[in-house]
Amino acid sequence: ERGKYVRTIIRLTISYVPWIIYWTLCAIGSRNGGIWALGISLLLLIYNILTKHISYLDTVSLGYFIVTIIVTNLLKTDILIIGDGYYGYGYLAIVSIISFLIKKPFMNYYILYSCQENELEQCSKWINIIWISVFIISMLIFYYIKVPMIAVLKSNFFVLLGIILTLIILKNKIQMECDV
Fold first, then answer.
1. 106, 52 in Cβ contact below 8 A?
2. Which ranges of the chain have pLDDT less than 50?
3. Considering the chain, what is the average pLDDT of its residues?
């Protein structure tokens, strides 16, 4: 039972890998960040299809990386390389807020394995608010900090904080279930 929350964080971290690759490659000036991220996202989507559990984050990430490749390689502009974190986190914040407003929070995919169906909404609400906050704070970090690698490191701190807070919420929730 207690290992459920660890699987949740592993799934979330794996979904975040294409973004980490994208931001890291863009931070060093590579024009291939979107291509690598799209490739990894496609592999994740294939896995999702095979396991019949489609992740909202993995799916919307595909759209962003396709646009990034088009803008960077076909339109020959580096706006999404230079503003990679600002636009990327802005995109993640917007799609997270939309998913929350339409009552299909993106984190449901991950926490479904840690919470029972009747407790999903309560668990999901707070965890989604945490991740929307992480995305907005990270977007602002990239907007105000003009040194890409420093911005990546600072935003990754907030991502790590989001992971830790998610773990705490899930662990406490699971602990309460086990004590009953």
1. no
2. 176-180
3. 83
- What local confidence, expressed as pLDDT, does residue 140 receive? 95
Burial category of 30 from C-beta neighbours within 10 Å (exposed 0-12, middle 13-18, buried 19 and up): middle
Q: How far apart are CA 16 and CA 159, in angstroms?
A: 10
Is residue 141 within 8 A of residue 158, CB to CB? The reply is yes
User: Residue 110, class by beta-carbon neighbours within 10 Å (0-12 exposed, 13-18 middle, 19+ buried)?
Assistant: buried
To 5 degrees, how large is the angle CA 42–CA 46–CA 49?
Answer: 135
Task: Supply the pLDDT for residue 3.
Answer: 65
What is the model's pLDDT at position 177?
47
Give the closest residue to 85 by CA, choosing from 64, 58, 105: 64
Amino acid letter, residue 80: L
* Rounded-to-integer distance, Cα 170 and Cα 39, Å: 31
43: tokens are 């592999």
